[in-house]
Amino acid sequence: MKVKDVKHKVTLDDFEHRLLVGCVNVARTMYLEQNKPTEDVDDLLFKIIKAPSKKVSVRV
Predict the structure, then answer these.
(1) Radius of gyration of the chain from Cα atoms?
(2) Is residue 28 within 8 Å of residue 38, measured between CB atoms?
(3) Of 17, 19, 32, 56, which has the fewest beta carbons less than 10 angstroms from its beta carbon?
């Protein structure tokens, strides 16, 4: 049985993006302190930081 590669798109404002980067970085620091491997967390952090941004017009 093959597992499907599912991708998700999330829309974040600037504050939410910075908060997410900070939280993942805290998790990475905890892994480092516990001498656990950080490759997966590093990959996720890299994806979040390098994700393309898009300007969205907001109608009020």
Answers:
(1) 15
(2) yes
(3) 56
pTM for this model (two decimals): 0.78
Rounded distance, CA 42 to CA 48, Å?
Answer: 10
Q: Is 7 inside any structural domain?
A: no
* Both tokens assigned to 59: 């109608």
Question: Which residues make Cβ contacts (< 8 Å) with residue 22, sequence separation at least 6?
Answer: none
Question: How many whole angstroms separate alpha carbon 39 and alpha carbon 52?
Answer: 22
Structure-block tokens of residue 45: 């952090």
In a domain, 29, yes or no: yes
pLDDT in tens, the chain (60 residues): 677 888 888 999 999 999 999 999 999 999 999 999 999 999 999 999 999 888 878 787
